[in-house]
Amino acid sequence: MNATDQGTDAERRSRAATELERLRPALALDAERCLGRAEAVGFLARLDRWFADVHVPVEALYGSEVVEGLVRGALCAAAERPVALREVDRRREIDPGWFQHQSMIGYVAYTDRFAGTLDGVAGRLDHLAELGVTYLHLMPLLAPRAGENDGGYAVADYRAVDPRLGTMDDLEHLAARLRERGMSLCVDMVVNHTAREHRWARGWLAGEPEFDGFYLSFPDRTLPDAHEATIVDVFPHEAPGSFTRVPGKGWVWTTFFDYQWDLDWTNPRVFAAMLGEILWLANRGVEIFRLDAVPFMGKRLGTTCMNQPEVHDIVQALHALVKLAAPATVFKAEAIVAPDDLVGYLGAHERYRPECELAYHNQLMVLLWSGIATKDARLAVQSLRRLRPIPAETSWATYVRCHDDIGWAVSDEDARAAGYDQFAHRDFLNAFFSGEFPLSFARGARFGENPETGDARMSGTTAALCGITDARDRDDPNALEAAVRRFVLLHAVTFAWGGVPLVYMGDELAQGNDTSYVDDPALAADNRWMHRPYFDEAAAAHRHDPGTVEGRVFGWMHALASTRASLPALHAAGESAVLPVDSPHVLAWRRRHPRSGNFVGMVNFAERAVSIDPRTLDGLGVLETVLSSDGPPLVHQGRLVLPGLGFVWLAQP
């Protein structure tokens, strides 16, 4: 990457303005020829809006001479954009915060495990509509390599669908069906690497000039050894090391598995090629791109090779160019990194730099499970108070569980402030949620345990980790009641913290661990498949029966979604603020909307009732209960009482 001094921000933007002035007349003529007068006006308006966000990072990465070709590539993609998607573009340009609306609810699923095929997914849209889903994330579905493929993240062809799931025509048809119902399609875009079978990799191996320099490789172990002294070994047990010997190419950088080759993002042709794939998929109807493994794209000797400055340049430039061609599209960062590093992917730098509109709030998820295990909210209060705010144009994706394992990302600073030893607390959480800790109700399993350090992450469905599975197996109604309350409490936070709540498939039916993965040799070594169950038709048949666990859980999920949709204060553009309370068991937070006023959410992690000083709510106006696990909170001896494992949502009328 270009490491030369690019001057001050003002100087960089001045050069961008000069370059735009030079390019605009010719681009205006070409845009009108390609798009027609009305569409050309829109494209040029977007060019004025986004050009600096293209030019500044691209100049830093590759030099300014690359900019014109990239902009013209975006113009070509805009010209190829179907009419139906241009109509979506117009709506989204008027309402750029469409993804932040309080009615936005995400649902995450593997296509085959949810419905068999993409055609099958189209047949389950009524189920999603019942839940209030407006955003469907289908886990990796682009054509992977045959055999081991890291759960689909070893992509062999970005322009084809895994043939077991359907075809690209099927995906395009599903995207259209979703749009008809007001739902947006999210697809994984693996940007750090490709499968070694990808056309780019095969061309690079064959020495084709078009693919020269597409992948990172070294002739001997000198630099790989130097890099491995500081980088993190992602899968130390399953795939130790970060480099693989490839005949004819030396040591190829393979951050994850030996069949996933890291792209060399210092090469501008890699940037242009990946941009082309994203724009092609956007024109098939993909509206949200989950950028997988995005923190790993920048490599610098002597660092962890994560979250490097050039990564943010790459994402900013990709984002701006996609906005030129397909303004209805948004990016979601798959960046499971420290909170202070994470906010950068949402543009929270010293000066706002548009990058991704969405990022996973991994910290909130970890803190919620910690609260469930300890019955204590102090770590959550400490960590969430300290988290840097994100730009109003962006949103968190909040979630209780996802397809991946849970890594206990707790900083030493926050652990100490809450009275914990960071490493001892991680050990406790692993023991608790694996069921090894005395009196634990959880039925999870350790994943990726490092035999040298003892560190591990956690696998298991929400129902298994919060005690539903254990209580059902023991036929213990009291334990089951507590477990369901834990389940609801967790979602009461993710649905109201602020952002876009995501529901992982099967959670709405309280599905437990699926151990059938051990019978498949391709999956048996990866216990994360236990929390990626197949959709349970029998459980779904009970979703409207409040006398069943499935009915209770589904009913609560529906209530949370429908109530959330009615509360403007839960629009994601607002800011969440932790409220000070005098109980260590309670997490309380406030949201504010300029028209509807204040919203307050409170949860009690303890299994017994606790009370707080009602003066916590002073200055927030008259608040009424809009949803609660136990009805409006009671006042006893001048204190506000929260039932054990209870929650309450309060809002101004």
Quick recap of the structure?
The chain has 653 residues and is α/β, with parallel strands linked by helices. 38% of the residues lie in helices and 16% in strands.
Number of helices: 22
* Range of strand content: 15-25%
Major sheet: order of its strands?
1-2-5-11-12-13-14-17
Low-confidence stretches: none
Structural description of this entry:
The strands form seven sheets. The protein has an eight-stranded parallel β-barrel with strand order 1-2-5-11-12-13-14-17. Strands 18-19-20-25-22 form a five-stranded antiparallel β-sheet. Strands 7-9-8 form a three-stranded antiparallel β-sheet, with helices on one face. The chain is of the alpha/beta class. The mean pLDDT is 95. Helix 1 packs antiparallel against helix 2 (37-62), helix 2 runs antiparallel to helix 3 (67-79) and helix 14 (362-374) packs antiparallel against helix 15. It is globular. It contains 22 helices and 25 strands.
